[in-house]
Amino acid sequence: MPVLYILCAAVLLLVIWCHIETRLLKTVVYSFSSPKVPEDMEGKRIVLLSDLHCTMFGKGNKRLLKHIADAKPDMIMIAGDMINGDSKQYGYALELLKKLSGMGTKVYYSFGNHECRLDKAFWGEGEFDRYVRTCEPYCNILNNDHTAVGEKTCVYGLMLDLIQFGMSLKEPLTRPINDYLGAPDPDKFNIMIAHDPGYIRDYLKWGADLVLSGHLHGGIISLPLLGGLISPRFTFFPKPDKGLYIFDKSRAHVISAGIGWHAIPFRFLNRPEVVVTELHKAKDT
Predict the structure, then answer these.
(1) Which residues have a Cβ under 8 Å from the Cβ of 69 and sit 6 or more positions away?
(2) Buried-exposed string 17-40: b where 16+ CB fall within 10 A, e elsewhere
C-alpha cells in the first residue's frame, strides 16, 4: 500500500510540474549564416512567435512582451495559431498585436489552422474576414502574399488549405506551393512563414531560404534522446519537432515549440519559447 501512495504522489507531482512548466517562458536564440543573406540584413534579429492560443503571461502579457523587448528584434514574425479557432476569445491576440505594434518593430503575421477555422466554427461565415480587418491596423498580414524587406529580401506568408492540416504527411500537397505564393525571385533572400513544418521539403523545393514554423508545440512532451512525443496529427515522435535545422549549408528551418496551448495546459521538458533568429552574411564557399 505505501508503494501505491508513493506512486500516486509521484504522478500528482508530475502533473503539477507539467502545468507549472506551461508558465516557464524562455527565449531561445539561433544564429543562421548564409551567402544569400543580403548585406543590409547582416546582424538583423527576427523574433518568431507561434501558437499563442489565447495564452497570457502576466497581466496584459507583460512577461511575454518583456521577453520580446529584451530580444531587441528588428522584425517580429508570427507563424499562426494566435487564437483558438473554436473560441469566442481573440481579444488576447488583438491586445498583443496592438502592443507589438506600439514597440515600433515591423510585425508580419501569417495564419495557421486555428485562424483558418474561424468560418468553420460556430462564429459563422464572415468571421475570418472580420478577424483579418481587425488585425490589419497592427501588423502586416501575409496570407499567401509577400512583401519586400529592404532591397533584396522578401517575406512570404503561406496559408495552406485547412484540409491540409488533417492529412497525412505521406500524402502530397493538394496544391503546389506556386499556386499559393507564385514563384519566388531566386536573386532575393526569401523568408517563408509557414505554420506547418511538415512540408519543409516542398518549401525548400519552392525556393525558401529561411522557413519559420510552429504548429507542433514541440511535441508537447519532450523525452530525452527521443524528442517531441506527439504531433497535432496524433503521430508519435514527429521529426523535426523544434529547433534550428540547416540544409545545404545555406538554407534553414526554424521551428518554435510555441507559446501556449489550446486544450489542457500541459508541457514536459518543453518550455514555451520566444525564438530569436540572428542573420549573418556568410562567404561563398
Answers:
(1) 103
(2) ebeebbeebeebebebbbebbbee
- Give the DSSP H or E segment for 13: helix 2-21
Q: Each residue of 258-282: pLDDT tens digit?
A: 999 877 888 999 999 999 999 999 8
- What are the sequence ranges of the domains in the chain? 2-281
**CA 47/CA 167 separation, integer angstroms:** 29
pLDDT tens column, 229-264: 998 888 899 989 999 999 998 999 999 999 998 778
**Cis, peptide link before residue 224, omega less than 30° from 0:** no
Within 8 A by CB and 6+ apart from 118, the residues are 83, 85, 127, 128, 131
Burial class of residue 126 in the structure, from the number of CB atoms within 10 Å of its CB (0-12 exposed, 13-18 middle, 19+ buried): exposed
Please indicate, yes or no, whether the overall pTM of this predicted structure exceeds 0.90.
yes
Q: How far apart are CA 118 and CA 110, in angstroms?
A: 15
CATH architecture for the domain at 2-281? 4-Layer Sandwich (3.60)
How many CB atoms within 10 Å of residue 124? 9
CB 45 within 8 A of CB 74: yes
Nearest Cα to Cα of residue 251 among 187, 165, 190? 190
- Tell me the three state secondary structure of residue 103: coil
